[in-house]
Structure of Signal recognition particle protein:
Amino acid sequence: MATFGNLSDRLAETFKNLRTKGKLSAADVDGTVREIRRALLDADVALEVVKDFTGKVRERALGDEVSKALNPAQQVVKIVNEELVEILGGQQRRLEFAKKPPTIIMLAGLQGAGKTTLAGKLAKWLAKDGHTPILVAADLQRPNAVTQLEVVGAQAGVPVYAPEPGNGVGNPVKVARDGVTYAQQKMHDVVIVDTAGRLGVDAEMMKQAADIRKAIDPDEVLFVIDAMIGQDAVATAKAFQDGVDFTGVVLSKLDGDARGGAALSVASITGRPIMFASTGESLDDFEPFHPDRMASRILD
Ligand code: GDP
């Protein structure tokens, strides 16, 4: 994955040096941990996550599991892999469907994060799996957001609930609520509610998202974050956690060539799992997120 190419290369180089050694001294371990630390920081992984990660790797690498291993270097790589999986959320977390349909999924995030695109991706993916999703256009901030969702819905082959002119225009909470009621009436089993974002975090936007959340009581709130926003990812995620809270994270634009480490820190910092990854502009550039597969890709 382009986003982690550099990190991947750096770690590969570190492990290549390590493999030339037989038994590992404490100095070897420390040297390796230092290189890993630098590679993670250069990839924009948040400092507190890096500290925690390298602390755990170091402690394990100095312990019995490495000193008694047949191949100590390989054991260190295995430890790094396991700890990386932990940072990325451990087990894969699937969508939770409501016992009584419809399952309500609310999307939140900054403007441009990729929410509207994600709405289409998720809907298409769910429809392929036999669900009958509907999209609700509760982003009334941007003039063309409703039209954009309608285009995405048409591409995904999924209906869109949008406010009628004069009814609910300007009131996203009402549109969201009406959309959910409409979905119930039409027997859709999943409702995906797109909400407005701003270019930066602001109080009014957060309140609107919180009000929508209160009004529709979603089963999942997915926080969509652009992996390319770098260091801001952590502060943005914390602001959304405080303001709306979310049940899962979606990393978007993982196809970009920016350093994606900050986005990788989000699960660890918020304690919320990364559930999906978005890897391009087409509706098919989308996949459930598997922490173990991502760790393997980075360490490949
Ligand atoms: P929203 O404001 O959060 O609804 O964001 P949009 O869905 O409108 O996306 C903003 C821009 O990013 C659009 O031009 C999308 O085509 C693009 N985009 C969304 N997801 C991805 C992705 O995973 N990769 C790339 N390269 N572009 C994306």
